[in-house]
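Thread: quick sanity check before group meeting

JM: Hey all, I'm pulling together slides for Thursday and realized we never actually wrote out the predicted structure for the chain we discussed last week. Dropping the sequence here so it's in one place. If anyone has concerns about the input, flag it before I start.
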Amino acid sequence: MASSLHEAASSVATMSDGDAVETSSTCSMEETCAKIENALRRNLKLRDMDNDSKEDEAPPIITDPTKLPGYTPIPENAPQWKIAMIEKKNEQLLDDALRKHDVVRQEEEKWKDVPEWKKALMIEREKRREEENAPFEHERRARTEEMAKLQQLPEWKRNLILKKRGDM
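JM (edit): ok, ran it. Output follows.
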């Protein structure tokens, strides 16, 4: 009788990548969290295996997704919609952390074989170049944003605005 109740009460939570995590209403909160965390870790390991085609790359800094800032543990007796929402949020946090780690890794790879003195010199030149081009870049960005807004307008209105400005 108890096993049939356990079978009837069990449910399967599906994560966004298709992994299924079996939970049940008779499981404790710790067991449910552990199952979900293990599924997240498996997901992380699979991503790492896909991304680690090069053997000289450093392992990811993120070893435990529960240690991420903003990680939300799944509360006990939470409805399925809330569990799904929290899992989605936690997966998004993991993806953001991995993306940031990849950016840092790419930046390190960029400067890997460059001497420190040359790196400092090149960074200084790049900053100076950005400062010189800042007014032009701001103007260009404002113009492209304005054109994007105009593209959303109907053609007759866009033509009217451009004619008033004298751009047409």
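AS: nice. The radius of gyration is 26 Å. Residues 1-113 form one domain.
JM: adding both to the slides.
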